[in-house]
Amino acid sequence: MGRAESRTRPLLAVRLAILVRPGAATTRVGGEHDGALVVRVTAPAEHGRATTAALEALADALSLPRRAVTLVTGATSRRKVVALDLPASDAPALHGALERLRAG
Predict the structure, then answer these.
(1) Which residues of the chain form beta strands (DSSP E)?
(2) pLDDT digits (tens, 9 = 90+) for 48-98
(3) Is this prediction's pTM over 0.90?
(4) Residue 58 backbone zone (phi > 0: left; psi -120 to 50: alpha; other: beta)
(5) Is 53 a member of any domain?
(6) Which end of the chain has fewer CB within 10 Å, C or N?
């Protein structure tokens, strides 16, 4: 698909609350805590490394390109809000993937 075609496709911007748990033994996305999707990362919570690792892990878990996952709020907090930008036609698949991840 060319650049012109991708600009004309309807886009969906989804906001998602996540809880980052830095310093975990393994990087893993799954589970829910107080309404937020839990993202465990091996990176430490220093100099934004855990945030970067969490965004990468979330993109990977949802089969999205990294550029489609952006931080909205919570740069220095474990609770964050991220934006997921994707074609509107991918909404049902995203919904299913989020439900599976929240179930753990």
Answers:
(1) 11-21, 28-33, 36-40, 69-73, 79-87
(2) 999 999 999 999 999 999 999 999 999 999 999 999 999 999 999 999 999
(3) no
(4) alpha
(5) yes
(6) N
Overall size of the chain counted in residues = 104
Looking up tokens 């012109």 gives 4
- In the block, residue with structure tokens 């964050």: 80
- Structural domain span for residue 8: 3-99
Give residue for tokens 């490394």.
Answer: 49
Contact indicator for 32, 52 with CB cutoff of 8 Å: no
Tokens for 14, please give them.
């989804």
6 touches 86 (CB < 8 A) = no
pLDDT at 29: 98
Q: What HEC string does 38-72 produce?
A: EEECCCCCCCCHHHHHHHHHHHHHCCCCHHHEEEE
